Amino acid sequence: MVLEPEFSRALSVVSREGSTLSATLQLFWDAGQAERRVSGKKLLVKGAHVSLIGHVTRDELLRRLSETEIGNGFGNRILWTCARRARILPHGGGSIDLGDVVQELKTATDFARKRGNSRLLFDAEARLLWEDKYPELSEGQSGLLGALTSRAEAHVVRLALIYCLLDQSPKIRKVHLQAALAVWRYCFASAQFVWGDALGDPTGDSILSVLRAAPGGLSRWDLTNAFSRNKSAAELDRGLGVLLEQGRIRIEKKETGGRPETLYVVL
């Protein structure tokens, strides 16, 4: 288990050219194994279970997580969870006795190890619930939010498995799947809070921001002037195309007594 209280540092490393950190973490998430060369020798790790807990502010996350890491699958292998301070404790919160929790974890770990490589399956009720929820989980969303939550079904199954093992149950029951779905809903809402309806396309996001400030819509000429003519026609075309494809804007025709004017309006 890796604890990184300054996750922004890891994100800085991930975004460096030639860095293998992102690819390595993705391999561990997918298959529990990865290899790399160290001092000319090949180092191979198999059967690993890597758990990463990172702390970062919303502003730092938006600044540090690059489009590349969002697009290549690094971001959607993470369960994003927003948290805020619940109480003000100037003298600390005191000590917590975790003895019972630690013992329960040890017992659950022993149970999991004794199962070896045998698969844990859904029971009948859990299977029906999974079949009901799977279409929604696998459908995905558009924009940055969609890119960062596109492994919903995989996360839910893993969470349900963890709850099953903690309960030392021979099968994944409905209650385990319900708990996993509740966690995922919170993680999805957290990602929604951080990235909202951003597209992940800088030009498209900029155009959307400008159009939101003009409820009546803007013409192509208005948009060109809004960006002080610093965006090329091709760039504006691409950004507008992304917004139209994602259903974020619509085109309206305004009568002028001559040739109708084309306006772009936010939906």
Descriptive overview:
The protein is mainly alpha-helical and 267 residues long. Helix content is 52%, strand content 11%. It contains twelve helices and seven strands. The two termini are 45 Å apart.
Task: Please give the structural blueprint.
Blueprint: E1 2-4, H1 7-14, H2 21-31, E2 34-38, E3 41-45, E4 52-54, H3 58-64, H4 67-71, H5 99-115, H6 124-139, H7 143-148, H8 152-166, H9 174-195, H10 202-212, E5 218-219, H11 220-226, H12 233-245, E6 249-254, E7 261-266
Parallel strand pairs: 1-4
Antiparallel strand pairs: 2-3, 5-7, 6-7
Helix pairs in contact: 6-9, 8-9, 10-12
Descriptive tags:
single chain, 267 residues, mainly alpha, three-stranded antiparallel beta sheet, 12 helices, 52% helix, 11% strand
Mean pLDDT reading: 89
Spans of 5+ residues with little confidence (pLDDT < 50)? none
The major pleated sheet works out as: 3 strands, antiparallel
**Helical content (DSSP H or I, runs of 4+):** 40-55%
Distance separating the two termini: 45 Å
Number of helices: 12
What is the helix/strand order? EHHEEEHHHHHHHHEHHEE
Strand order of the largest sheet: 5-7-6
Rounded Rg:
24 Å
Structural class: mainly alpha
| Assembly status | single chain
**β-sheet strand percentage:** 5-15%
* SS elements, strand count: 7
Tell the overall outline: elongated
Short structural description:
By secondary structure, this protein is mostly helical. The chain has twelve helices and seven strands. Helix 10 (about 200-210) crosses helix 12.
